[in-house]
Amino acid sequence: MSGEVLSQSEIDALLSAISTGEMDADELKKETTEKKVKVYDFKRALRFSKDQIRSLTRIHENFARLLTTFFSAQLRTYVQITVASADQIPYEEFIRSIPKMTILNVFEVPPLDGRILMEVNPNIAYAMMDRMMGGKGSSINKVENLTEIETKIMSNTFERSFENLREAWETIADIDPILTDFEVNPQFLQMVSPNETVVVISLNTTIGETTGMINICIPHVVLEPIIPKLSVHYWMQTDKKEREPKEIEVLEKRLKRADIPVSIDLGSTEISIQDFLMLDVGDVIELNQQIEHPLTIKIGGMPKFHGQPGLANKKIAVQVLEIMKGGDDDGE
């Protein structure tokens, strides 16, 4: 049985109304048995499940982290970008929700059809441009008067930043983002029909002391071929687990072909600087290594084996006697 859970105060008020005659128990029972009608707006069709929206949110949380790293390096100032929300709404509603004058970057994402829109609040866009030009990162909202130089700087910056979407999306699609249009007036931009469902991922953005929003608008037509990959079932598949042994096998083969230095410690000693200065050709230095004691064999600079010197094919060699205690036994 489904329904809302009443608080204790609501229960007390309901019992009081029944006892005083303000409410008839039979009418209340009749009301609860009636079928409840849920209003459905066909202009606001929900074409993505909550599960798929959550998957898109996770993907773009990764994208937000990548953008934070990218802009921090480019602007050399404090940058923080986080996902604020992810909703599916009609395209017309999204256009009405953004400023009349703003920064609009339109990208194609082949091999997927359609285009993705990246809307950047003018406060954020100007703060970025001011930092790139050597300023403190102050913002001036005069987006309707963008010069050609300002347009070029902004479009180049956001085009390079959107490259991070390729890495964020690599688990669901291998895309190649290409900037195809740069606009400032949403009314001049018609990507899809007004009633087309779009997913809007809103990113809270802080550049220095300036805050604003970056919105990623993804039409349904773009996501339609990869919708199955947005479900929990896809993420829980064992395909990845089945690939892991192969990846481990390849890694092991590559490691086995890697060259590592092997050195033999013949011994050491200490001499005074005076003795060192008096050394000449033919002098003999006595080491602290006893001839009957085994030598230390080092692998990659780390002591690993005990060995004894000898000859093999007329070359000086060392025979491994035993593994040293304390050596990495797991590395045999």
Automatic annotation (TrEMBL):
<keyword id="KW-0145">Chemotaxis</keyword>
<keyword id="KW-0283">Flagellar rotation</keyword>
<dbReference type="InterPro" id="IPR001543">
    <property type="entry name" value="FliN-like_C"/>
</dbReference>
<comment type="similarity">
    <text>Belongs to the FliM family.</text>
</comment>
<keyword id="KW-0282">Flagellum</keyword>
<dbReference type="InterPro" id="IPR001689">
    <property type="entry name" value="Flag_FliM"/>
</dbReference>
<keyword id="KW-1003">Cell membrane</keyword>
<keyword id="KW-0969">Cilium</keyword>
<dbReference type="Pfam" id="PF01052">
    <property type="entry name" value="FliMN_C"/>
</dbReference>
<keyword id="KW-0975">Bacterial flagellum</keyword>
<keyword id="KW-0966">Cell projection</keyword>
<dbReference type="Pfam" id="PF02154">
    <property type="entry name" value="FliM"/>
</dbReference>
<feature type="domain" description="Flagellar motor switch protein FliN-like C-terminal">
    <location>
        <begin position="254"/>
        <end position="324"/>
    </location>
</feature>
<protein>
    <recommendedName>
        <fullName>Flagellar motor switch protein FliM</fullName>
    </recommendedName>
</protein>
<keyword id="KW-0472">Membrane</keyword>
<dbReference type="InterPro" id="IPR028976">
    <property type="entry name" value="CheC-like_sf"/>
</dbReference>
<dbReference type="InterPro" id="IPR036429">
    <property type="entry name" value="SpoA-like_sf"/>
</dbReference>
